[in-house]
């Protein structure tokens, strides 16, 4: 039975979203303040990054009215009584916003280099895009390589567009990836692999990952993620270091090996000790174990198991293999 680790392509799984937010007036002039005003309420890494970037620029954010957010689609609201849409292509099409060929070419150009693009419509007119550069965590490629050495198939299942997911996946050595997936789609993908007989672990941090974390045999949430993800997961990593994913898997295997060793030792010890204490040798050799020694032997059985378990304190994580190339940053501005 193969094991699959499904890293989410979000902020804490394999890359930082808050490295850089680049606002470009590509189609028509409009203010980043409008976009950040809508995203300031968001728990999604993209929204938080945009709002943080605007705050760092000293922009004064306004109040968003009639705010509506659809997972894996986008946001609609009113800022200063002006209708605003933020989201992907499907969200724009749903609201009748037309994306021209030239504009689509510009969007695709950003996505091809690994950027996440948020399309913006102001006053029912396509107004621009917010292109976000993603940074791969330094140990990401090493973690993927280590999982592969352990025989674990690594997938990237993300709600980001296919171009961005492909770029990030290739950068860290992931061969299996799926982009443009909704939260329910992630859950369906995991269920499909489970139906094929695979054991699935899911690493995620966002609210969009909660259904998949619940579906997986082992859900691993990053401590910096949303409360929903943390509550849903079976394991919570206290730090955002990807190396902790490998440590979690390696440590769990080490603990299980020790449990099996203790079980085998205790079983063999008692299979020999109990008959001796009962006097099984007395009819033949007239030898028997005094009760005081039998009691001491029983105590030593428990002590030996405890001492064996204490050896786990000597656990040290294995060193990660060196990646073939430094993929610390995908896009530099």
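^ structure tokens above, recovered residues below v
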């Amino acid at each position: 039975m193969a094991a699959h680790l499904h890293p989410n392509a979000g902020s804490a799984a394999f890359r930082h979203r808050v490295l850089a937010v680049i606002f470009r007036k590509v189609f028509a002039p409009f203010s980043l303040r409008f976009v950040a005003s809508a995203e300031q309420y968001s728990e999604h890494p993209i929204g938080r990054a945009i709002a943080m970037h605007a705050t760092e620029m000293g922009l004064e954010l306004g109040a968003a009215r009639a705010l509506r957010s659809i997972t894996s689609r986008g946001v609609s609201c009113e800022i200063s009584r002006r209708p605003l849409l933020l989201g992907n292509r499907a969200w724009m099409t749903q609201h009748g916003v037309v994306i021209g060929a030239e504009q689509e070419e510009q969007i695709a150009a950003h996505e091809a280099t690994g950027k996440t693009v948020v399309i913006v419509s102001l006053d029912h007119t396509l107004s621009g895009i917010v292109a976000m550069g993603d940074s791969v965590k330094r140990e990401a490629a090493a973690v993927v390589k280590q999982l592969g050495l352990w025989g674990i198939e690594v997938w990237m299942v993300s709600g980001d567009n296919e171009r961005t997911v492909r770029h990030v996946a290739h950068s860290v050595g992931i061969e299996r990836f799926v982009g443009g997936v909704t939260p329910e789609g992630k859950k369906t993908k995991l269920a499909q692999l489970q139906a094929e007989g695979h054991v699935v672990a899911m690493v995620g941090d966002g609210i969009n990952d909660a259904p998949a974390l619940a579906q997986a045999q082992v859900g691993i949430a990053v401590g910096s993620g949303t409360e929903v993800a943390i509550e849903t997961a079976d394991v919570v990593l206290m730090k955002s270091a990807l190396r902790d994913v490998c440590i979690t898997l390696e440590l769990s295997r080490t603990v299980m090996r020790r449990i099996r060793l203790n079980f085998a030792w205790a079983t063999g010890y008692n299979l020999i000790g109990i008959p001796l204490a009962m006097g099984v040798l007395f009819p033949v050799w007239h030898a028997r174990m005094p009760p005081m020694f039998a009691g001491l032997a029983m105590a030593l059985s428990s002590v030996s198991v405890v001492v064996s378990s204490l050896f786990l304190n000597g656990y040290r994580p294995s060193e990660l293999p060196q990646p073939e190339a430094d993929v610390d940053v995908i896009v530099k501005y």
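The two ends are 44 Å apart (CA to CA).
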